């Protein structure tokens, strides 16, 4: 069975975005971006894959993305209706009833049941959970792995890594990647 992988960036103080969903304050130096392109190129939006000249590189980690409406919204704001055209795209939303693009499926019901069905599919590649916090909280029982990119910055306030009730869930740290810039990538698997 394939896994649900929460691949997400956060500040030192645990925020995945600013109070108004800002992400432009996350520093992305060359060494770190080179690593992201080479190791997690599947998780980059299609325009970033083109910029990095990896748009023709075969998928190696993910073939499906699940994201919340707020994660999808910035693409819509600039007229992009299929931001991850190289992946099967699912948007979980209680307010969006119709998809603006035939390549994007809206999940209006139970995201847990939808993700369980995606995980049960016959595929060698995993499902990428792109966020946000409320969706990650709802899907916490289904998250098999977390790849947390910790940026060397403190936000002070913003969107937390998870938004859920008290739900202690053990994960085991399996790998740590460090960069001279202060970036750290923590790889966790469900204990």
UniProtKB/TrEMBL annotation:
Q: Which GO terms describe its molecular function?
A: 5-amino-6-(5-phosphoribosylamino)uracil reductase activity
Give the matching InterPro entries: DHFR-like_dom_sf, RibDG_C, Riboflavin_Biosynth_HTPR
Domain Bacterial bifunctional deaminase-reductase C-terminal residues, every copy? 8-184
What Pfam family is a match for this entry? RibD_C
Sorted alphabetically, the Gene Ontology BP terms of this entry are: riboflavin biosynthetic process
Q: What is this protein called?
A: Dihydrofolate reductase
